[in-house]
Amino acid sequence: MSASFTLPAPAKLNRMLHIVGRRDDGYHELQTLFQIVDISDQLTLTLRDDGDITLATPVNGVAHDDNLMVRAARLLQRSAGTAQGAIPRAMPGATLTIEKKLPMGGGLGGGSSNAATVLLGLNKLWQLGLSATALAKLGLQLGADVPVFIYGHSAWAEGIGEKLTSVTLDTPWFVIIHPKVSVSTPLIFQDPELTRDSRPITMARALQGGASEWRNDCEAIVKKRYPLVAEALDWLAQYAPVRLTGTGACLFATFESEQTARTVAELAGQRWPTWVARGLNTSPLQDALGC
Ligand SMILES: C[C@@](CO)(OP(=O)(O)O)[C@H](O)COP(=O)(O)OP(=O)(O)OC[C@H]1O[C@@H](n2ccc(N)nc2=O)[C@H](O)[C@@H]1O
Ligand SMILES: Nc1ncnc2c1ncn2[C@@H]1O[C@H](COP(=O)(O)OP(=O)(O)O)[C@@H](O)[C@H]1O
C-alpha cells in the first residue's frame, strides 16, 4: 500500500443558479449547474499509525481544527471507526499538507473541494472501501458543495445542492476574476431583496436553453451590496458574457478561444487576481485516483 498520495482539489463554477424556495430551517432550495474546472489546490495525504490528524501547512485565517480538511479527516475516522454492526476499531491517522491556489470564500468551492479530496483520498489510503454515496453523505455534513466534488462530474443540482444528476456541458475557456472583496454567503441569503421565488424549471429545459439563457439569482443583490463586484463585472462584460459563481465574489467570462481568454486575462490581471481555466466534465481528482 502506498503511504502517501498527492491529489488535486479542483474549483467549480455555478454556470447558472436559480433560487426556487426557502426551507423551514432557513436554507434555500436551489437549481444550479455545477461545472468543475482545471484549476486546483494540491493536497498531500500521508499515512500515520498513531491515529493523529494533523494539517502541517496552516491555512491563513482558518484555525487548525476548523479547517475543512481536518474536519473531513476526523469525520471519516469517527464514522469508519464506529461503523454500525462492526466492532469499534483503532483507526490510522494522516498528515495533511496543502498548496493553496484557489481563493477562499470566492464561490469557487475550494474549501468543499479540499474536504472531498480528503474524504476520497483517505478512503483509499486507509483502505476503507466506502462508496461514493456514503462519502457524499458524510461530506454534506461539512458543506452543501462537497457531494459534487465527491462524484466528480458536471451536474444539475437541486435541493440545497445535494440532489445531483450528472450532465455533460460545453467546455469553454473561462477568465475568472476575484474583485478583491469578500462576500458573505449567509448575508446574501438573508437579504430581504434576494430573488427567492424563481419558477422551478426542468433539467432538460435548463440544458436546452444553453448559456445565453443562464443567470445567477444572487447576482443582482451581490452587485448592489458590493460595488467592487459591480465594477469588475461591468469591466469584464465588455469582452464576453459574464456570470457570478455561487454567492461570489468571483466572476467568470466565457470564451470559445483560449487565445482570446488569455489576452483578456492579461488585461484583467493588471487590476484583479485572475485565472484562465478550461471547463471540464470529469474531475482531475477522479482521474488521479483512477476512478
Ligand atoms: C450557494 C452556493 C452554490 O455553490 O454558494 P458558494 O458557497 O459556492 O458561493 C453553495 O451551495 C453554498 O454552500 P456552502 O458555502 O457550503 O454553504 P454553507 O456553509 O452550507 O451555508 C452558509 C450559509 O448560507 C445559507 N445558505 C446556504 C446554502 C443554501 N442552499 N441556502 C442557504 O440559505 C445559510 O444561511 C448557511 O448558514
Ligand atoms: N481548507 C479550506 N479551504 C478554504 N476555506 C476553508 C477551508 N477550511 C475552512 N474554510 C472556510 O470555508 C469558507 C468557504 O470557503 P470556500 O469553499 O473556499 O468558498 P466558497 O464556499 O465561497 O466557494 C472560507 O471562507 C473559510 O473560512
UniProtKB/TrEMBL annotation:
Gene3D superfamilies: 3.30.230.10, GHMP kinase, C-terminal domain (3.30.70.890). Residues 67-152 form the GHMP kinase N-terminal domain. Pathway: Isoprenoid biosynthesis; isopentenyl diphosphate biosynthesis via DXP pathway; isopentenyl diphosphate from 1-deoxy-D-xylulose 5-phosphate: step 3/6. Belongs to the GHMP kinase family. IspE subfamily. Keywords: ATP-binding, Isoprene biosynthesis, Kinase, Nucleotide-binding, Transferase. PANTHER family: 4-DIPHOSPHOCYTIDYL-2-C-METHYL-D-ERYTHRITOL KINASE, CHLOROPLASTIC. InterPro entries: GHMP_kinase_C_dom (IPR013750), GHMP_kinase_C_sf (IPR036554), GHMP_kinase_N_dom (IPR006204), IspE (IPR004424), Ribosomal_Su5_D2-typ_SF (IPR020568), Ribsml_uS5_D2-typ_fold_subgr (IPR014721). One of its GO terms (molecular function) is 4-(cytidine 5'-diphospho)-2-C-methyl-D-erythritol kinase activity. It catalyses: 4-CDP-2-C-methyl-D-erythritol + ATP = 4-CDP-2-C-methyl-D-erythritol 2-phosphate + ADP + H(+). ATP binds at P103, M104, G105, G106, G107, L108, G109, G110, G111, S112, S113. It comes from the Bacteria. This is 4-diphosphocytidyl-2-C-methyl-D-erythritol kinase. Pfam families: GHMP_kinases_C, GHMP_kinases_N. It comes from Halomonas citrativorans. Residues 213-266 form the GHMP kinase C-terminal domain. SUPFAM superfamilies: GHMP Kinase, C-terminal domain, Ribosomal protein S5 domain 2-like. Catalyzes the phosphorylation of the position 2 hydroxy group of 4-diphosphocytidyl-2C-methyl-D-erythritol. The active site is at K12, D145. Its EC number is 2.7.1.148.
